[in-house]
Amino acid sequence: MNKTILTDCHKRIAPFIHNTPVLKSTLINERLGCKVFFKCENFQRAGAYKIRGATNAILNLGDAQRRNGVVTHSSGNFAQAVSLASRSLGVPAHIVMPTTAPKVKKEGVVAYGGQIYECEPTVEARQAMADKIAAETGAVFLHPSNDLNVIIGQGTAALELLAEQPDLNFIFCPVGGGGLIAGSSLSAKYFGKDCKVVGGEPFEADDAYRSLISGKIEGNETVNTIADGLRTTLGDINFPIIKKNVSKIVRVTEEEIIVAMRLVWERMKIIIEPSSAVTLAALIRDCQEIPSDYQNKKVGIIISGGNVDLNQLPF
C-alpha cells in the first residue's frame, strides 16, 4: 500500500462523485477551544460518502463481471451508493436490506434503480441472502466495508480534506463496519503531517472500541443505537489497518449523539444523520475529558451522511 493507490483511486472515481465542501462553525470552535473543519459528505451523491467506495469497487471489476451485476447488503447508505454507482456504470444492482432499515434509505435505493431483497436484521441473515443471490445470478458480492477497493475509495474523503487543510492534527470518523475509518487512516498516514485518526462509536454498538483493546475482532453485544449506520462489525481486511493506524476510539451515549446532531442542525444549518453526529459527539466528549489535547489544534470531522427520515427525528 502506498499513496499512489489513493491518488489513482481519486482520479478514477472523480467523474462520478462530488468533491464535497469543508465547513466551519465559529460557535463550535469557541465552545471546544479548537478549530474544527467539517468534511460534509452529507452533500455527496446519494447523500453519503459510500458512493466513493462503491464506485471504485465497481470500476475495478472486469466487463464480464459487470454484466452479471453486483450484490451487497446494507442498512441504507451503501445500498443507495451501490444502486447509484451501478446505474451510472450500467451495472445491475441487487440490494439486501434488513427489515429495520429506514424507509428513506429504501426509497433511495428504489429511486436509484436497485432491486431490494428484505431480510431479518442480523449479520448472518444479510450475508446468507447475499450469497444466495450471488449464486443464482452470478453477481459479484461487494462488502460495504471489508473490501480493499471499497476502503481505498472511502479514504478519498479524508484525502480531499487534507488537500484543503494539510496541517490537521486530528481527523475524527464514525466507526461502523470500519471501511471509512480504515480508508481515512491511510489518507492521514500518507497525506497528513502527524495527523492522528480518532474513531467515534456509540456505547450501544462499541465492538471497535473493544476490538482495539483486545487486539481481535469483537462482536456487538447490543445494537440499540439511533446511529443505524454503525450497527455493523469490523472485518478481517479493515481491522488490521485500523489497529495499525487509528489512535483510539471514543464512545458516546445516545443522548450525546442527539445533542451533537441538533447542534449541527441548529448552528450550521445542515442536515446530518445520527451516525454522522457520533463524530462531533466524540470530539465534544474528548475535549471535555482531556482539553489540553485539543487546545488551539486543528481537527477534521468526517460528516459521513445526511440521509434522515424526517418523520423519525429524535428532537
3D architecture notes:
This protein is about 45% helix and about 15% strand. It has helices spanning about 5-15, 25-30, 50-60, 65-70, 75-90, 105-110, 125-135, 150-155, 155-165, 180-190, 205-215, 240-245, 255-270, 275-290, and strands spanning about 20-25, 35-40, 70-75, 95-100, 115-120, 140, 170-175, 195-200, 245-250, 300-305. It is globular. The chain is built from 14 helices and 10 strands. By secondary structure, the protein is α/β, with parallel strands linked by helices. The longest helix is centred in the last third of the chain and has 16 residues, at about 275-290. About 55% of the residues are buried. Strands 1-2-10-7-8-9 form a 6-stranded mixed beta sheet, with helices on both faces.
How would you describe this structure in keywords?
globular; pyridoxal phosphate; six-stranded mixed beta sheet; 14 helices; Pyridoxal-phosphate dependent enzyme; TrpB-like_PALP_sf; 315 residues; 47% helix
* Average pLDDT for all residues: 95
Order of the strands making up the biggest sheet: 1-2-10-7-8-9
Please report which band the strand proportion falls in: under 5%, 5-15%, 15-25%, 25-35%, 35-45% or over 45%. 15-25%
SSE pattern: HEHEHHEHEHEHEHHEHEHHEHHE
Shape, per Cα inertia axes: globular
- Helical element count? 14
- Backbone CA Rg: 18 Å
Indicate the low-confidence ranges by residue numbers: none
* Range of helix content: 40-55%
| Ends distance | 43 Å
Number of strands: 10
Major β-sheet annotation: 6 strands, mixed
Alpha-beta classification: alpha/beta
